[in-house]
TrEMBL record:
InterPro entries: Bact_2-comp_sensor_kinase, dCache_1, HAMP_dom, HATPase_C_sf, HATPase_dom, His_kinase_dom, Sig_transdc_His_kin_internal. This is histidine kinase. Keywords: ATP-binding, Cell membrane, Coiled coil, Kinase, Membrane, Nucleotide-binding, Phosphoprotein, Transferase, Transmembrane, Transmembrane helix, Two-component regulatory system. It is an enzyme of class 2 (transferase). It is a multi-pass membrane protein. Residues 422-609 form the Histidine kinase domain. It is found in: Cell membrane. Residues 374-404 form a coiled coil. The chain crosses the membrane at residues 12-31. Pfam families: dCache_1, HAMP, HATPase_c, His_kinase. Its EC number is 2.7.13.3. It comes from Paenibacillus planticolens.
Amino acid sequence: MRGKTLSRQIFSNFLIVIVLSLVSVGAFSYVQSSRALDGQVKQYMEQMIDSANYQTDSYLQAYELLSNAFTSNPDVRAFMEIEPNDSYEFYVYSEKIKEFARISVVSVITLYKQLNMIYAVGQHGRSVIYDNQNVLNFDPVLVKEKYDYLMKMTPADGKIALLNMSIREVDQGSVVTMARKVRGPSYGDTNRGVVAIEIKLDELAKTWDRVSLGKKGFFFIVDDTGNYIYPRSMSERKPQDELASRVLQSGNQTFTYKYNGEERMFVSRKSGYSDWNLVASMPVEELRRPVNTIRTTTISVGLITLAIALWLASRFGRSIIAPIRWLKDSMRETEKGNWQYIDETGRTDEIGGLIHSYNLMVTRLSDMIGRVYEAELEQQKNALELGETKLERQRAEYQSLQLQINPHFLYNTLETINCYAIVQDSTEITEMVEAMAFMLRYSVQTNLEEITVANELNHVRNYMIVLQHRTGKEFEIDVAIPPSLLLEKMVRLTLQPLIENIFQHAFPDGVEPHHFIRINAKKENGLFQVFVEDNGIGMKPERLAELRKKLEQNRLAEPEENGASQRGGIGLMNVHRRIQMVFGEAYGLSVDSEWGRGTCLMMTMPETARPKMRG
């Protein structure tokens, strides 16, 4: 603790006490609340599913009474014993059975609304069907097929079976069939047929729809064979799929299962009456939402409380050590060279005296060091000016070496020479190689000393020889320089970059027969000027203004700032600056251009003057 400041000690102690209190209280509250909410949610789902199970059983028991009445009806039993071809008996018993069905159903309004149809089918293949409104005659072959299925799925001991089927295709999936086998009048052990009651699921579903499970919760029913009874959307799923299998295996247990990519909780209850499995499902995320809300609230309140407490602790600490910290910070700034004064107004205690002595010391030191700095800054300024000039000259020579020949131009030229060598034995190869040799020999001399106009024109001639062979197009440059000016001095590698720049930028659509490039020179008023003129596309006014502004800055072009110009040669700004570095800043390159008419580049140098090398 001795190594810490007083404010940090106060802050640390407050932090430990507050964090321990918040963590212990928050964690205990969160764990207990989570357990209580989880239990309540599970209990709520179980109560909902138990209620739905009870109502479903009560609903089906009413139909079981109707089924008992039909299976014990003497006319129904007698119908099972008639001869298949006895039309008279079939007519008599069918009328009695339908009348009995009508009376039984109409007397109970609930049964009347929810009943789809009642039918009795005997082993002899004859059937009586009451559809709650009309008498229907079905194809015997169709009835026989349905009868075989009913006989197979209905228990032989007279118990009822709930089947997900209908004898009418249009009703398939929208009804559930309650079937029971019927014995003959003799009450022997032989089953003579089946009585089936089709119940509309839409009416029964009104009971299930009252199961409230939130926005993403749903309720469904699976029978013992794995068929989905409700809702109709799930009845299209394959029987005994993975979800149905999990439900059948769980019995009355609660389980979690990933359904449609979402983790969900399933609460299953098996009906003791119908052998249906009633299942309620809700997303685990939705179930955990109240718990997450408690957690978020606990964390938020804890963080807010922690922030307020830390702010109070920090403020308390500052109020104790603020005067000492002012003096300490001021001394630290003084060590860095920043003369920091402290306000001593109204202080008459020991700290006030210490602050006064500190301010006096700072005043004297700042005066002494200020005089020393002024002398050193003057010397450094002079040294920097000389060093900057020397550095810029070295940089210009480096850029001249680095950028003297376009790498892409050299690469394309060598490719052209290679093609010539492979395809034909031509004198053009010799001419190109000689021109490239002269260009390279001329370019490797990287000093900024001046040479003659004739040397620069010869370098341009070699460049044109290579360019014409590489492009396959002949183009002549009009040289109008008087012979008397061919031995005038100029800076090395300044004329060829201007020609290359014209080819790259003045003729964007290619060189046409009407295009020209003209080189001229004159001496006037003690100046030697070389003009390079073309009738290309020219420059837009804003581009011309931008270029002139950069030339006025008298700086070498940075590669990242002048990437486009670098591709055309050393670049206009570098040509301009190198002329200035050889002859002085009064000389250099100027540009005059008109959009759509052409461009004129003018190099200005002293007349027959010896260069004044700087740096």
